[in-house]
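Q: Got a minute? One more chain.
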Amino acid sequence: MGFIPFTFVDLIDIILVSSLLYALFRAMKGTSAPYIITGIFMIYLLWILVTTFNLVLFSTILGQIISVGVIAIIIIFQPEIRHFLQVIGRQRGRFEFLTKIFNFRNRKQQDDIDLQPIVLACQEMGAEKVGALIIIKQSSDLSVVVESGIAIDAQVSTPLLENIFFKNAPLHDGGVVINGSRVVAAKCVLPSTQQEVPKSYGMRHRAALGMSEVSDAIVIAVSEETGGISVAHDSVIKRNIEPHMLAQTIRRMMHKNDLKQQEN
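A: Always. Here it is, folded:
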């Protein structure tokens, strides 16, 4: 008996499948998806068992459930599938020609951002322990997040940000989206992180980290408990940033992709 032929194409096939399974595992990590998959697998094994013993009625019922399994999986795993596709979409930055096409206008807009009102507002809110969540848009489309909040379209200013996040203000709960020099929306709903984070992380920090996982936005979180300032970007959050270092930290994140392209 000869060995099963194994070619270079088979090796590529295995690597691609392994990469896909690993990406799916990363996307589902920390969610209830593994338990749901286990349940589906058990139903499938039960269907094989009842079919073997010719239990017609039970086999027919399970067969109907399995026949619509693909649609059910899409519905059940909608958040995980959306997160997985968003992660894939963010990889376009690795292709230099696409980055130039989609980011040229946006980079110019980023360079024109005046961070002083944002930094000053975060400093004052941190000193007074007023919670805040500020999203600075870059190249990713944030229309879904903007539509989840209240449209504003106003010039960025320190008093405006402080009024929005004032504890008794109607718009303080949620995030503020800033695009260039304009505040475009407030009270926006942000996705929570898919990572396993310390229990000390509050909902603002989880939302800031979650937003950085599905977009290239820079998210500033001011803790209501401690007044500490954190910045999330590229699935990483930096906590307890000194106020005088905030603008420099944001600028460094803004140009992070440009530096990567120059290195390549």
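A: The CA atoms of residues 149 and 188 lie 4 Å apart.
Q: Perfect, thanks.
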